[in-house]
Automatic annotation (TrEMBL):
This is DDE Tnp4 domain-containing protein. PANTHER family: NUCLEASE HARBI1-RELATED, PTHR22930. One of its GO terms (cellular component) is nucleus. Its main location: nucleus. The lineage of its organism: Eukaryota, Metazoa, Chordata, Craniata, Vertebrata. Residues 142-177 are annotated as: Disordered.
């Protein structure tokens, strides 16, 4: 399953999509979700999501600069990477808390629909545990989450891509100069 998640800095999951097979590209899942609409509404409040280089750079979705040429772009990429680690830690914590989701804990030998339901239930329980401040007890800690490298997405709309690049450039200039 390809699980797409939006999480806050406290590892609370604010959006989850676990209904697509692993062969579906991340950007396709994003396009077919409610996230573009919601983020379009929130953008006037200077709210952005961070995505890896497998996603298109959008006005509300900031991705790394592929070939940074300035120190500001390098600082932006460093801050982007540090901040994006929250999602990696969240996946790692989720897999450690619910071993059935981690490949060392076994496999889920159920129908794809049932596997999706199990993933969603685990994520809901994770959020509940965070809200109720249930301590996470494990000697070794979470494994940090394994994320596969994804090929960059080619944007079909070059004019929109230029506007989105300008948005990222303005963020870099405003916060990383």
């Amino acid at each position: 399953m390809n699980v797409k998640m939006v999480c806050l800095t406290d590892q609370y999951m604010s959006h989850l999509n676990a209904m697509f097979p692993g062969s579906v590209h991340d950007a396709c899942i994003l396009r077919n979700s409610s996230i573009p609409y919601v983020m379009g509404q929130l953008q006037r409040h200077c709210v952005w999501l961070l995505g890896d280089s497998g996603y298109p750079n959008l006005s509300w979705l900031l991705t790394p600069v592929r070939n940074p040429r300035t120190r500001a772009e390098e600082r932006y990429n460093e801050a982007h990477g540090r901040t994006r680690r929250v999602i990696e830690r969240t996946f790692g914590l989720l897999k450690a808390r619910f071993r059935c989701l981690h490949m060392t804990g076994g496999s889920l030998f159920y129908s794809p629909k049932k596997v999706c339901q199990i993933i969603v239930a685990c994520c809901m329980l994770h959020n509940l545990a965070l809200r109720r401040q249930v301590p996470f007890l494990q000697e070794d800690g979470p494994d940090g989450g394994v994320v596969a490298a994804v090929e960059p997405v080619d944007s079909e709309d070059e004019e929109a891509e230029e506007e989105d690049m300008d948005n990222r450039d303005s963020v870099i200039q405003q916060y990383f100069q």
